[in-house]
Structure formats: C-alpha cells, structure tokens
Specification:
single chain; mainly alpha; 21 helices; 83% helix; globular
Length: 521
Amino acid sequence: MSRLENSAKNIFLSFGNTLLSSLLGLAARTVFIYSLGSDYLGLSGLLGNVLGFLSISELGISTAIGFSLYKPLAEKDYKSVSALMTIYRKAYTVIGFLVLISGIVLFRFLDFFVPADQQPDGTDFAYFAFLANTVAGYLLSYKATLISSDNSYFKLVPIQFSFTVLQTILQIAALLIWKNYIIYLSVQIVCSVVSMAVQNVYISKKYKEVDFNSKDKLSEQQKKEIKKNISGLVIAKIGDYLVNSTDNLIITKLVSLAATGLYSNYLVIRNMVNSYIGSIFGNLTAGMGNVVAVESDEKKLEIFDTMFFCAFFVYSFEASCFMCLFNPFIGDIWIGEEFLFPAGTVAIIVLNNFLTGLRIPIITMKGAAGKYLEDSWVPFAFAAVNLAASILLAKPLGVAGVFLGTIIGSTLTADWYRPIVIYKTVFHTSVKKYFKKYFLYLLLGVAETATAYFLCSLVPVRNVYFGFIIKAVIAVVIPLALNCLFFFRTKEFASVRTIAARISKGAVKKMKSLLKRRNHE
C-alpha cells in the first residue's frame, strides 16, 4: 500500500474516530454535568492543566524520535529502528518515574489553586488518578510512535474506538447508578491503561522484526540528528505550555473552580471543531517543508498567501458560528442557562480563538522551515505578558479578563515578530504586505461576526430548536457570502477553487473506480 493511500486512510479514519469519539464524549459529559455539577468539571480541567505541566519533561523526545524513524522504516533498516525504539523506551521509563515523583511533590501545592474548603469530595483521589494515567501513558504509549512514523496509525483506530465506546458506556452507567466521581475516574483509568496495553500487543505482533530491548547502538549521525531536533523542540514545547495551559489555573485561582467548569463546556465544543481544522493544517507541514526546500521565494510566498487566506476563510466562518451558536446550544439545547457566560465574555473567547487561527499559517511555515531558534524568546515573552495581563484583568473582568490578557500577550509578541522572521529568512521580502492582509482579515472577521450576531439577536425565540436553526443559517451564510463577495477576484480565491475542483474530481474518479471494481466482483 502506498504512503499516499496510507495518508488518506490516516486522515479519514482519524476524522471518523474523532467525530464519533466527540459525540460519545458529549453524551458522557452531559450525564456528568447533571450528575455531579460544574465544580467537578472545573476540577477535571484544573487537574489536566496542573499535571500537563509535568509533560514538559518529555521535551519533544517523541517528535525527535518520530523524525528519526522515517528513513530507517522506509529502508526497512530494523536494526536502526530497534536501537531508536530501545532508547525511546528507556527515556520514557525514566521520564515516567520522574513525572511520578514530581507529581507527588506538586500535590503539596494543590491547595494554592483550590483552597481545601472549596475542594469537592474525591479531589485527592482524582489528583492521583490523573497522575497515574499520565505515568501509565509514558510507560505504555511509546510504541504508538513507531506505527505512526510508519504512516499506519489508522490501524490502531478500531482498538481506540472500541475502548472509547466501552469506557463511555461504563462511565455513563457509573454516573447514573452511583453518581460517584471516584468510580467514574476509576473506569477511565482502567480503560485507558488496558487500551494502551492492547495497542502495544498489536504493534509488537505487527513489527516482529523490531527488538524493543536491543543492544545495538545508534550511529553518530543519528545521535546528532536527534539532539538537533530536541534542542529546537524543547523551547517550543515549554513555551507552548506556558502560553496554552495556564488559563484554567488563573481562572480557578482568581475567579472560581465553578467558572473553570463553565469554561470547560465552551472549551470542549471549541476543541471538537478545532481538532478537525487542525488536522488539515497539521498535515500541511510536511508538504510545506518540501515547498521550502525546492521552490522559489515567489512560489513559497504565493502558497503561503493561499494558506493564509484559507485560515481566514475557515476561522472567520468558525468565529461567526461560535459567537451566534455557543450560548443557544449550551443554554437552550444542551445543559441549561445556568451554565452560560455573558455575551461579552463569549466574544472575548471567540476573538482569542480567531486570532489563534490566523496565527496557524505562520506557525506551519515556521515548522516546515525549521525556524525553531530564531524566535526562541517569543513563547516566554508571550507567556510573561499573558500571565501579567491576565492576573491584572481577572479580578475586575473575571473570565473575560483572563482571555483578554492572552490577546494582549499575543499582540505584543508573537503576532508581530514571527511574521518578520518568516518573511526575512524564508521569503526574503518585506513583511508589510502580510500586516496589511492581517489587519484586513482581522477587521473583516470581526465585522462579519458582529453582523451575524446582531441579525441573530433579532430572531424571535418562540421555539428554541427552530430559532437555533435560523441562527445557524445566519451564522453560516453571512461570513461565506461576504468572503466570497470580497475575495472572488483574488489570486488566493482562484487557487482555493482550483484545489477544491481537483479534490472533487479526484474523489469522483475514485468513487467511479470503486463502483466499477465492485460491479466486476
């Protein structure tokens, strides 16, 4: 089977698995909210971020090993693969025990974020359950990098989905029968550990040629490559955590644990949608790496402009839908108005997500070009400004202040410096055109979202379901219609139409081929 066919299977099966898992997760979350309330939701979000801090110790090893596995797997050099996986296993075993010790120490500071008198029953057990799951991940998940690097990760999807279904059924049953958070978490940990163990057995059988306890040594060139990759990734990994994983900590500390629970409902919907968008842009990095290596500066810039336009088109559409439909869905259809944020807070959350989306093409190009060290100060400056601004604004503005702090942090650091680096070192041209497009996209995205939201506010709420459908139509039509109207004659729009036509043509051709094959059979 070709790598192209494997890549297609990876994308489609990952999409399907994510969709079904998201729907199951939403069902379990609904029962969770009605059974245990927002405090336990907040606790889950908080512990995920607190223990996420310990993942910094991984320092990009999995990514570095993954890069190093591509060539020996393609050449069927299982001696090198065995040596790499043995080092990976040893590294992850050491990291697992370090995480365990660090987690035990970190437990002493849990009261700093949530005072003991505000902690719901089972908080201590929940902490160590999350810690055990994190440690088990290091001890059991390392083999998945092997099958992923071999472009065959889709073969694990049936195992993962089966355990997701089993876990969801058991957790819902536990909540309905006992309404007990400890039992709920116990089911999650057991299913997670058994799922990883089953995947390991499958991978070991599939790769019988690979010795995970090999005594072979890596060549000096291989060691040099791994060290180079890790040195570039470690700074990015630490910075990304500081930027992306502190919001829940600040909300819990300066607002309330319940507010963290409310935000987690918005977050789960946002992450569900972004996971699909992110997979598309994530798969572009390797292709962009080839573009950077072989194409002219003009061609690289042309492709980047198309990707930048696609990001604006997709995320402006998403912003309109989120702003118009977040509260109607959560309040009217899903779990009730007591779980809603005010419209102003929702607007700040949506704006922050939109700005993050506009940043993706620059980050994609940065990864494709290997520009990890040129802006090494940015994540730390971003995190420092974000933290300071969020803390200052959290008290007077609540949750909205926390995300306004994130927007301020990105505006003063990453949003202006990273484009300068990429345009100077990759495109070798002035960055002025980028900023003109950036501000145009930003203003249009905000204007389209505001227009759609205003029109939705005029929809009479006689039947919540009918009203939701009308609002959904408005949220979809406004950004699509205006973006098509404004950009119909641009090069970027023409490029997107050409790409879409090729994909559609290829899909139709593939479908006809499959139908002919079935008829012959």
